[in-house]
Specification:
With about 500 residues, the protein is of the alpha+beta class. It has two domains: about 5-275 and about 380-445, 2-Layer Sandwich (Antithrombin, Chain I, domain 2); about 290-375, Alpha-1-antitrypsin, domain 1. Helix content is about 30%, strand content about 25%. It has eleven helices and 15 strands. The strands form three sheets. Strands 1, 2, 3, 4, 10, 11, 12 and 13 form an eight-stranded mixed beta sheet that branches. Helix 1 runs antiparallel to helix 2 (about 25-45), helix 3 (about 85-110) packs across helix 6 (about 155-165) and helix 6 (about 155-165) runs parallel beside helix 8 (about 210-220). The longest helix has 26 residues, at about 85-110.
Length: about 500
């Protein structure tokens, strides 16, 4: 693992600390924080050098001594991005969310499922920035980009969305401070008002990555490529990436990349991490929390701690389920859909679409006597690869035909392809509020086949009578056996 004070860690930590230090809740403060981060990136970029895609030098040393490959461009501010691009990105992300979830939940069975589709879409659109040809077309299909957002608009939209989300925490904190001051209460803690969406890309240090790709990473995702020795120190790189994810999620997502998930074929890992922590607008009274029975899908029961509150909530009944919105500070809401008795959750989920009431906070309100169990759940690291393939993203996972020449036009030691897409997520819902986090890693390897010269084929010219057998491979049973004396003899009609 990279030690504190190393170039990679110090740059990443400087950016993170700078972001944390600038969290007052006004648009002016957010813009000021962005400008400060931009200045820091300019200073970093000034000491870096990168060239066209190439391999190591003749003595095996990296082609550049820099520890961060970063374009000279800085992140494009939200103020210069169109609302249309943001809307297009949200539409694509939500369609992707429903599609991905339907496939994950169908494979999960009767168990808890938790995924962060926004984390996946951000990590995958970073990867899409370097895809070309059929690989890009298939990724666009899986990501539900559509014709309107297949150009730079998706990158602008993801950038605008990420910055909008990043403003939620400072804005909510400012309101909370004002309310506390007016009520004579202690000042709230900034750590309780957070919605952080961050990206990082980690690349093999003997590569120098394509400038247009670096430009998109810098301008739309606020990151560069942190250089690692994946060839010789892949597990140390894995631990470095895991440490970054843990730091950015306040230790809620640990060991995103399990042991063995990277090897000496790994050349790049693209990572998104999201961390959310907000109090409820209407907190639950802990004295009203009581144990009650929860019935699982198979009819068995467990005892759970239920939070109870009777108040006016955003609420709707869509004819199949009761749907309640539990507003959090920061313009965020937890939406809970409870299917009517007699309708199982699986059947209800099968009918979900991007327009389903369960996927947005209800516009109407009602007085609701709500009783909802406390939840603390962390998923294992799970793969999105099978689901993404069924969604149309196939060639990206093919080591020979994947086309990521937009990341590196001429990979020096094998074609680049996506070997896996991993995610891990967690949520805790208690009387005071909600904390949730997730991280997604797109692992890019280089193809290992074709490294050595193919063997010389053994000639076999079937120009004489020959024996023929048809056998059952599984059992070894011979089903047909004979020989051919004259291949032009068609025998009896």
């Amino acid at each position: 693992m990279a030690q504190p004070g190393s170039p990679v860690v110090s740059i990443a930590e400087a950016l993170r600390r700078d972001s944390v230090a600038n969290t007052p809740g006004t648009a002016h403060a957010v813009n000021a924080a962005m400008e400060k981060r931009a200045d820091l990136l300019r200073a970093v970029a000034a000491i870096l050098a990168f060239v066209g895609c190439s391999g190591p030098s003749s003595d095996g040393a990296p082609s550049t001594p820099a520890q961060l490959a970063h374009a000279s461009a800085v992140r494009v501010p939200a103020s210069s991005l169109s609302q249309d691009s943001l809307n297009a990105a949200v539409a694509a992300n939500n369609a992707f969310a429903v599609d991905l979830y339907s496939r994950l939940v169908s494979a999960a069975g009767a168990t808890n499922v938790l995924t962060s589709p926004i984390s996946a879409s951000l990590a995958l659109t970073m990867t899409y920035a370097g895809a070309l040809g059929q690989t890009a077309t298939e990724m666009a299909t899986a990501l539900h980009l559509g014709d309107a957002v297949q150009g730079s608009e998706i990158f602008d939209g993801q950038n605008a969305l990420s910055q909008a989300l990043a403003s939620r925490g400072p804005s909510a904190l400012m309101v909370a401070k004002q309310n506390a001051q007016q009520g004579g209460q202690p000042a709230p803690s900034a750590s309780d008002y957070e919605l952080q969406v961050v990206n990082s890309v980690w690349g093999e240090k003997t590569y120098s990555w394509a400038a247009p790709f670096l430009g998109i990473l810098a301008g739309s995702y606020g990151t560069g490529v942190y250089l690692q020795d994946f060839i010789n120190q892949w597990d140390a790189a894995r631990q470095t990436i895991n440490a970054w994810v843990s730091s950015e999620t306040d230790a809620k997502i640990n060991n995103l990349l399990p042991e063995g998930s990277l090897d000496n074929s790994t050349r790049m890992v693209l990572v998104n991490a999201i961390h959310l922590k907000f109090p409820w607008l209407n907190t639950f009274d802990s004295s009203a929390t009581a144990a009650s029975t929860f019935t699982r899908a198979d009819g068995t029961t467990v005892s759970a701690s239920f939070m109870n509150q009777t108040t006016t909530f955003p609420y709707v009944d869509d004819g199949q389920a009761q749907i309640v919105g539990l507003p959090l500070s920061g313009q965020v809401s937890v939406v809970i859909a409870l299917p009517h008795p007699g309708l199982d959750l699986t059947s209800y989920e099968a009918g979900l679409s991007v327009t389903s009431a369960a996927l947005s906070q209800p516009r109407a309100s009602a007085l609701v006597a709500l009783s909802v169990p406390k939840v603390t759940f962390t998923s294992p690291t799970f793969s999105l690869m099978a689901s993404l393939k069924t969604m149309g993203m196939v060639q990206a996972f093919d080591m020979m035909s994947a086309n990521f020449h937009g990341i590196c036009p001429n990979p020096p030691d094998g074609n680049l392809y996506v070997s896996d897409v991993l995610q891990k997520a967690t949520v805790a819902m208690q009387e005071t509020g909600v904390e949730a986090a997730a991280a997604t890693a797109v692992i890019i390897d280089r193809a290992t086949s074709g490294e050595s010269s193919p063997p010389t084929p053994v000639p076999m010219i079937v120009e004489r009578p020959y024996l023929i057998a048809i056998v059952d491979v599984s059992t070894g049973a011979v089903l047909f056996l004979g020989h051919i004396e004259d291949p032009t003899n068609s025998g009896s009609p």
